[in-house]
User: Fold this.
Amino acid sequence: MLMTVGAVMFFISTFIIIFSVIYFGLNKRKYESVVKQYQSQGWPLNPSYQFFSNLGYFGSFFITAHFKKLLAGTPIKTGKRVWLPKAHYEFLQSLPGVETRWLIHYYYINFVWMLLIVISMLVGGVAEITA
Assistant:
């Protein structure tokens, strides 16, 4: 029974991944626009985020997670006792909702499929151990 539950969860996560790829494709221009506008303010992304921004869909989760934190006003540490300046938050929050709202949806879509995959693997592992 547990193995079936794990398999179903994994199967559902596969459909969510496919939806996530399509959703990103539909919003790719907005994604690129937000990244370019952010960088045009003279705020380069840190090296790892710069690398992720060049990976398209495969690196987009990390960038959208960063932007989601900025939109939510969550403090982001950039060094020892150094926090991202308030201007970064204000800039992203000043962008039109059409350009940023999808980022939050996209973040949660990706979070859900990752969570489902992890849970399905744990359930499958427990099922294998108890069998």
Notes: The chain is about 80% helix and 5% strand. Residues 1-130 form one domain. The mean pLDDT is 92.
